[in-house]
Design a protein that fits this description.
Elements lengths: L1 H23 L7 H25 L4 H16 L4 H17 L1
Helix pairs in contact: 3-4
Length: 98
Amino acid sequence: MRNYGYILVMAVTTYLIRVIPMTLFREEIKNRTFRSFLTYVPYVTLAVMTFPAILEITDVPWISWVGFITAMVLGYHKVSLFAVSLGCCGLVFLLQLI
């Protein structure tokens, strides 16, 4: 019974997140600052959800930091996302074997 309560709460939450913007903003948003803000919301949300997991994935914190810094450097040099993930995962794997 308790699981149905969880499902109901999540359904209502998901529904409200999608319906409230449609009811509040009926016209196209013309404010450049607000549109720019809305453009970056998905990226920030993904970063906020991913960053703690990156730092807590290994038992040794410095290995996580090495993987994170590697990802930042590879991303700065415009390496593809697939290559960044392979490089970081491979490096962290090798460091944990040592």
